[in-house]
Amino acid sequence: MHESQTSYASCIPEVDKVADALCQSTSLSKVWREASSGASMPSITILKEIMQRLRAIIFPGYFGSSVSSRSVRYHIAANLDSVYHLLREQISRGFSFADNLDLAPLQIKEKADYASLSLIERLPLIRDLLAGDAKASYEGDPAATSPGETIFCYPSMYAMFHHRIAHELYTLGIPLIPRIISEMSHARTGIDIHPGAVIGQNFFIDHGTGVVIGETSVVGDSCRLYQGVTLGAVSFPKNPDGTLIKGIPRHPSLGNNVTVYAGATILGHIHIGDNAVIGGNVWITNDVAAGTRVIQGKDDA
Length: 301
Known about the structure:
Strand order of the largest sheet: 3-6-9-12-14-15
Number of helices: 9
CATH architecture of the largest domain: Orthogonal Bundle
Radius of gyration: 23 Å
């Protein structure tokens, strides 16, 4: 490496002083990640392109190029081919990022190939799930004029598109990439869904801002949440050394056809039964029986 690439002297003494301070090992070691074997970090720009192409595949005619019945297969096939190659590279970078995995380059390539193809093979099912979400959004919101409007405009649909893709990658054991995809949606919509959350069919979040759905949450079919709802953890068990225990169920599960109104907080590994209605601004840490209405601290079975 040329000397000009390893050192730089500013003509401003104060700048040089700060550069030296930032390069001190006591400071740099806290935040620096040195690429191993030339591995690069995943690219946010490329992942955004992948998601844009996937939206055009899932919802042809709404996003990307205009298509007709004669050209739709060409557009879908071309986008699928690009998604496969772009995603394979990003998944490889995700595996290289994971400190807890000790994989040889050939193993990483094989896993990335498998995961990319597996996601692509699941796209027909993902489309069916999202079509159900769009139908639920239209039927659940009197202001919606068509399912197509919800696909094109609604933050709930944007969030669920990202979640359904991220969740598939999460179940395939892909490091980092699912979380990046989820955070893209979180940043735009204010809806925070961990990619590990299991969400059933015909799901609708009305308005959406401030909704939080934790990693081990399970949401049944035909559920509806309003803005500011939290499906969170009530406590975080720790190991003897004080570190958090990872991977254990710690979030709520909702049965089928559950409605949770604005500002409700449901915490812990508890169950909300089928057809329950949780009113606004309530705080729940215990199971709720099927068919129960919980309103401002009062249960009406």
